[in-house]
Amino acid sequence: MTPGVDVSTGSLGQGLSIANGMALAARLDGKNYRVFAITGDGECDEGQIWEAAMTASHLGLSNVTVIIDRNGVQSDDATERIKKKEPLDRKWRSFGWQVLEIDGHNFMQIHHSFDVAEWTTDRPTVIIARTVKGKGLSFLEGDANSHNISFSEEDLDWAMEELS
Questions:
Q1: Per-residue DSSP letters for the chain?
Q2: At the fourth CATH level, which superfamily is domain 14-131?
């Protein structure tokens, strides 16, 4: 129900495959639009991500941009303890992608990376956005255990006050 979000796939790695299909449809229909897939770093454990990454590169889907929230945390633990991801940038490059690494909390860097992705016409782009889980909230920042918590009304009030 969120405007601009066509599909919500969860953490099983299906979003990039769907993005590839949408980007290929644009090409076949002669339309000029960009498809974004947002994924968590833990989602990069899924083989489907890497199959879709190879497909996008092979097909030259330069209208596909993947944004990885690289906060180092997934639902069970730190990502590197679950399954080693680094060097994440080199892995994507080896699949033929343009790789941009940014501070995912810096809006200027986010905006610029979108421009660079749009200017790239020969391959897909992945933006590795380095972030801190719970950034700006003293009671959550950097806490791997905050992944699946519920907020009380008091917690919500506290969070809103800290973020203002």
A1: --TT------SSSHHHHHHHHHHHHHHHTT----EEEEEEGGGGGSHHHHHHHHHHHHTT-TTEEEEEEE-SB-SSSBHHHHS---SHHHHHHHTT-EEEEEETT-HHHHHHHHHHHHH--SS-EEEEEE--TTTT-TTTTT-GGGTT----HHHHHHHHHHH-
A2: Thiamin diphosphate (ThDP)-binding fold, Pyr/PP domains (3.40.50.970)
